[in-house]
Specification:
8-stranded antiparallel β-barrel; mainly beta; 1 helix; globular
Amino acid sequence: MSLSGRWRIVETELWDSDALDLVAPAFIEFGEDGLGSFDFIAVQGELDCGEVLRHGRLGVEFSWEGNDECDPASGRGWAVLEEDGSLRGRIFFHLGDDSSFTAMRGGEPTQ
């Protein structure tokens, strides 16, 4: 099963659901071409990603570049597909915060 597509971020370790959806519904999206994007709170990023096996589970690792409240931001992250169909991972901000996240398949694709 591919991880490609849009995943709705439903929970994080650091931010509550009201904060996650501050500007728009929070999501992370992986394309078949190894590119992707995410948006949560006031953070937006473009991903360079690839599918991997992580502890025997289908996963993805990525680096990202974007902005956090209009300031340049970058980092890295990873996620794995859980048995219940959810995506669980961690996103890191370069020289800043990091947080776990949980996402569920769904949402409209980006244009």
